[in-house]
């Protein structure tokens, strides 16, 4: 992180410069525990202050392109986690009753500060996560869009009223915040996913304890610094670090009312089961196996470019990456070799290098797993027509690199198809008809995203009606909805009943309260009834 932070100090924002000092000051005890003295420790955010952890255990923070240790992340203690929860609980007493317009104004200022520090945030994402700078900018921008959407919360979270449900009686429903909620974030979108969570949660009146990925926590902390500068009161957002123990503590803590999770299958199923067993509301975005279907009438050049980028971009480490392409009829011979040739021309290097198309994978473990699934496919009969294993870009020989890889003649019973590879690997499958392609996709347990490439409107309509997948693209490779909609992954890709952001996101972070009121005229004081001035002198809406 230290090298990244030196780069980031080009920022003209005084607040961010202060934040960087807070986020990166060294802890001698922590450094000694790792046998190093020159790397910074990552701080927590508790009750509005960036503080050192008293943890005895740390995990190294590495640059995926070089494997250089650039920081260390504490596994926070139970006492520190409890402090974070209690800080959020105390802050909720005031924040939950703050006018919604005031909360929205904080988000309005927050999005302005993100724009001012946009490039610094993107550089941090690239250094810690490995993405190309272009992909890192996209990471920050897609999160920024959710912050912008959160500014519309005053109108989105309005309640309902019906008068005279009975004589002299009215009933109205209002949306109330839940209280303290928690967010558990993945490594692959270190800026976007936190911004899916706390801008929505906090603007409707909740407070949040956030756990970023221990593999790239810097963006979360930098964004938190900007949120504080924007006016977010202390305790409304707290940030802790950890692994399994902190996740279990979040699931079990009685003061945490809801959990937002994005990550892998195993952890996502665990969080959903443990969290709901403890009486919490949980939304859990998990794994995926996203398919593209290509018909022979698809526009060749656009389809080839779209699929090459969709499977290899961000090193394939995104939950909406196209990892399986189903070619119908003659499309198999028309497209597979062209896509392979396009992918072969993508530049693989460190994310900050000019014109880089594909960066490193997040860790040696992730690289080893992806390479193992490639080999499993070959062993089971797939034809590897583009093998990116063992690629070492000049100057980044120690990085976690896997160049784009294409497996041909894949069948649904192969391990490389059944499991999410989460790397720049495309599995090419054949189908005799559109009906067969739809049946193949619907038989897969995942339901995050899918796309169809065609020039036929009737085929597109049939596909979008019959496919059992939550997010569908027509000639769009990665159909992630904008924040005014919701991220609607389904089946094995999602657990819960209310999705992230959009109207569903607002509903997840609020609960209905319904009031039935009767005020007989006999209760009006005679003086007020005579003067007709009942209520005069009260503050105007939004002025308190």
Automatic annotation (TrEMBL):
<keyword id="KW-0520">NAD</keyword>
<dbReference type="InterPro" id="IPR015590">
    <property type="entry name" value="Aldehyde_DH_dom"/>
</dbReference>
<feature type="domain" description="Aldehyde dehydrogenase">
    <location>
        <begin position="50"/>
        <end position="515"/>
    </location>
</feature>
<dbReference type="InterPro" id="IPR010061">
    <property type="entry name" value="MeMal-semiAld_DH"/>
</dbReference>
<dbReference type="InterPro" id="IPR016163">
    <property type="entry name" value="Ald_DH_C"/>
</dbReference>
<dbReference type="GO" id="GO:0006574">
    <property type="term" value="P:L-valine catabolic process"/>
</dbReference>
<dbReference type="Pfam" id="PF00171">
    <property type="entry name" value="Aldedh"/>
</dbReference>
<protein>
    <recommendedName>
        <fullName>methylmalonate-semialdehyde dehydrogenase (CoA acylating)</fullName>
        <ecNumber>1.2.1.27</ecNumber>
    </recommendedName>
</protein>
<dbReference type="GO" id="GO:0006210">
    <property type="term" value="P:thymine catabolic process"/>
</dbReference>
<dbReference type="GO" id="GO:0004491">
    <property type="term" value="F:methylmalonate-semialdehyde dehydrogenase (acylating, NAD) activity"/>
</dbReference>
<dbReference type="InterPro" id="IPR016162">
    <property type="entry name" value="Ald_DH_N"/>
</dbReference>
<dbReference type="InterPro" id="IPR016161">
    <property type="entry name" value="Ald_DH/histidinol_DH"/>
</dbReference>
<dbReference type="GO" id="GO:0005739">
    <property type="term" value="C:mitochondrion"/>
</dbReference>
<dbReference type="InterPro" id="IPR016160">
    <property type="entry name" value="Ald_DH_CS_CYS"/>
</dbReference>
<comment type="similarity">
    <text>Belongs to the aldehyde dehydrogenase family.</text>
</comment>
<keyword id="KW-0560">Oxidoreductase</keyword>
